[in-house]
Amino acid sequence: MKTPTYNDRSPLRRQPTASTLSCLMLGCLLASIGCGGPKYGAMPVEGTVTLNGAPLPNARVMLFPKAGRPAAGITDDAGHYVLAYTVSVTGTPPGTYRVEISTAYETPELANKLEKVPSKYNKETELSVDVVDGNNVFDFELTD
Fold this sequence. Notes:
globular; single chain; alpha+beta; Immunoglobulin-like
């Protein structure tokens, strides 16, 4: 029987892609938040993020309440996101939330290179939303 050899193209040698890492990080974030169910009263939250009129892919949208756990989602290629409160619960409970949108969430070392979103939408956010009972759609039209 021949011993397998591995080269640089071997699937076992490939480095994870940025999207793989971002999905893994979001999963870890949501897993660390905890598990929950309908008892949280989470309402569906989704929307679209654009920057200067163009869809903003791979951006993290986070909603932070005054107290309690945040909810997060990642935009797809069309800029669409769906928030998750926990691994198994989408949306977030009703309330007022501070909103942060960022493309530099993957690694702190690359933050300045990866960030496409002005700080007024993340570090110095000016955004807030009120989640109400029922479906919630929040579209964010960001500009430089």
